[in-house]
Structures are given as structure tokens and as C-alpha cells.
Amino acid sequence: MARKRRGEGQTALVTGASAGIGVDLAECFARDGYNLVLAARSEAALKEVAERLSLKYAIAATPIALDLTEHGAGRKLADAIAAKGLSVDVLVNNAGYGIAGGFDGSSEADQLGMIDLNVRALVELTHIYWPAMLKNNRGGVLNVASTAAFQPGPLMAVYYASKAFVLSFSEALWKEAEGSAVHVSCLCPGPTSSKFRERAGTGRTRLSRMGTPMPSMTVARMGYRAFQNNRRVLVTGMRNRLIAGLARFLPRKTLLATVYNIQSPAAPEA
Ligand SMILES: NC(=O)c1ccc[n+]([C@@H]2O[C@H](COP(=O)([O-])OP(=O)(O)OC[C@H]3O[C@@H](n4cnc5c(N)ncnc54)[C@H](OP(=O)(O)O)[C@@H]3O)[C@@H](O)[C@H]2O)c1
Questions:
Q1: Is the full-model pTM beyond 0.85?
Q2: Ligand 1 site, residue 125, Cβ cutoff 6 A
Q3: Dist. CA 249 → ligand 1 center (Å)
Q4: What is the CATH number of domain 11-262?
């Protein structure tokens, strides 16, 4: 008789599942038998991911296209999920974007959009699904923050601040769920191969010249394992752990100067 997979009978909602880390996180859950609800704006890409994963892993995958920066989008998504007769056991808050550059001269829509997506939609969705998780004593929340969460980020100020929020919020919920079977993990990747850099414009910074980005599937696997082990915070890879750890020891002014430096434009390559 085939062995029962860990996620059978459960559904994971993955936001930002049309590209990058979200696609690979969705695949990790599918491999373990979770049914999926996949959300992002790009309908065609979501459908392609849903078809591929449902065939490969014999699970049900439902794509729902919407813009999560719109106020009330979390509720709209939850209503669409409920209308299909589905419930959510695991919430993976992965959708997010960053914009590199000084705050002066930045677009107000871009800056507020980061807060709406990286913070507001994440809190809204968690607030919707959290009570049932606690009541059912199963499932949980996997939030995707960043190594940016560990210090302020001059030249990418709102993005870093949004990820600091995600880390703080996740750790607090981890504590609130302690003693139950509900898991909460915060995945903090460093530079990772995805479309993130293209949208953020971080390809021109000194940071982008410092080493090779990690493959998104490696990052997703680490995040998935961390969630299953109810690991509170997972920073991907030794190098990123060292960098994130430095924030605790460096004098604040030195830390700010270091981040400013690595977020500054690099000299053109010869
Ligand atoms: N890549 C990195 O170096 C890195 C490092 C640390 C942390 N992270 C974090 O990892 C997470 C995933 O990013 P990624 O690297 O996989 O980037 P990505 O390839 O750009 O993927 C981002 C995902 O978010 C979705 N998304 C963007 N805007 C959205 C909106 N308004 N409404 C709904 N969905 C939206 C995108 O889909 P649509 O465009 O179809 O909407 C896409 O599926 C983010 O939270 C990011 O901050 C990334």
C-alpha cells in the first residue's frame, strides 16, 4: 500500500506562486501531497504552474489571479477560495517586491505598494486564517522575509523595514502558537535567483556583485523543511547567517554605513 503523504487532506495557499521562490515552495508542498491554491497577478503563469504540479504530484491545484496590493484583496482572495468550497490549512505569505534607490525621488505608489503587499496583505491573510488553524490545531503560516529584516536598509529603506515587520510579526505569532500543533516559520533568504532583482533594480548595486545568488529551489526546500520542523526563523546558508548575525554586534552607525555602501551603485564592469 502507498505511504500516506504528510500533506494529504490539507491545502496550502501560496501567494506569489507565479514565479521565483513561490513556484518552488508550491512544488515542495505538492510533493508532500498538499493540495494548492496559487495566487499572484499573472493568470497564465499561475495556470501553467497549477497544471504542471497537479499532474506531477496527483494533487488539486487552483490558480486565482489577483493583485494583492489592492486594499481588501486578502478578503477577496479568501472569499474566492471559500466560493470554490476550499479551506486553507497552511498559508505561505511569499508574494513581495522591493525597489532599490534613495527614498528621495522614489515613486510614492511603489513605496506604498511594498507596504500593501509585503505587510498589509500578509497580515490580512494571516488574520483571516489564523483562528481556524488554532481551532483545528493544525497547519500554520510560512512567511517569507529576507536577510534585509535584520537591519535598516538605507537606499532600500521601505523594503528593509517591511521585512523587519514580517520577521517581528512571525516570531510573535510563533510564540502565541507555542504548545499547539500550529507551526509558524519565517524564511529569510539572501540573494536568490528569481525575477526579484529585475523588478527591484538591485542588479546595479555593489551587493549584487558579491557572490552568486542561491537557486530558488534550494531556498524553497530550506523554507519548507523549516516550516515542517516549526523552526521560528531560517536564514538561508552560512554566508547569509553570518551577515544577518553581524547586525547584532556592529555599532549601529557602522551597520548603516555598511548597508548604504553595499546598496550603492557598483562601478560599471570593465
Ligand atoms: N530573490 C531574492 O533575492 C529575495 C531575497 C530575499 C527575500 N526575497 C523575498 O522572496 C519573496 C519572493 O520573491 P522572489 O524572489 O521569488 O521574486 P519574484 O520572482 O519577483 O516573485 C514574486 C512573486 O510575487 C508575486 N507578486 C508581485 N506583486 C504582486 C501583487 N501585487 N499581487 C500578487 N502577487 C504579486 C509575483 O507574481 P505576479 O507578478 O504574477 O503578480 C511573483 O509570483 C518576496 O517576498 C521577496 O521579498 C527574495
A1: yes
A2: no
A3: 30
A4: 3.40.50.720
